[in-house]
Amino acid sequence: MSYRIAISGKGGSGKTTISALIVRYIVQKLGKPVLAVDADPNSTLGEALGLQVRSTISDIREDFAEQKMSLPAGLSKDRYIEYAIHQTILEANGFDLLTMGRPEGPKCYCYVNNLLRGFLKSVSADYPYVVMDNEAGMEHLSRRTTDDVDLFLIVAECNPVGIRTARRIVELTRKLPVSVKRQMLVLNRVPTELEQTQIISRIPEDEMEVACVLPLDPEVQAYWFRGRPLFDLPEKNPVYTILCDFLSRTFNATHS
Fold first, then answer.
1. pLDDT for 140 beyond 50
2. CA nearest to 255, candidates 24, 21, 1
3. How far apart are the first and last CA of the chain?
4. What total of structural domains would you count in the chain?
5. I want to staple 10 with a disulfide (CB 3.0 to 4.6 A). Which of 107, 147, 165, 186 is the partner?
6. Is the pLDDT at 68 greater than 80, yes or no?
7. pLDDT at position 144, please?
8. pTM (2 d.p.)
9. What range does the domain containing 71 cover?
10. So what's the pLDDT on residue 29?
């Protein structure tokens, strides 16, 4: 059974950066293979991981909806779509990447979406770890794309809007029939120690458990600006160091 990590948050909060660095930690520190799932329509996880994505699940969904797919003889529709989804998976050194692609159009894609959920459930069993970078907001929860999650990280910048969005995600998770074993808040881009203390003091422990506090780091921003993969980020980068420490404690506690 795979250990599933889902990352959510407001748009621009830095969840793709954190998703990529979690994939890096599992590959390099734990030596375990990972299925990285880019479920954000903006689809930038591949760039953060140093991969060029050419085919997405949305391409398959669109072709199917417009009846561009011709089924080979003797192959059912379900099996053919499953095969097509397999073909979109990019293989890299220590991890694979599955990219969902752009948002849905006006047509109904319910059938293919149901197949996708089933495919993710079955294919994830082949990987010890699954890391899913979700779309901004809360739609992935209501559509139950995020389900059967061991660790749900909600990324928020340390301002009232970011914290308010995180609270709404927590509330929705509790109301919907989704399985989430543990959900935690990641405060990102915190500029000063004083602000860090002030923000944490405003978050009741019974409301949101704070996983870690990550600084506003110009090196991370520079890597995004230059289009460099976050796998190349220096080992001692403060964001990566703090995140590694949190993941080490979390995984040790989980697997002990």
1. no
2. 1
3. 16
4. 1
5. 165
6. no
7. 47
8. 0.88
9. 3-255
10. 96
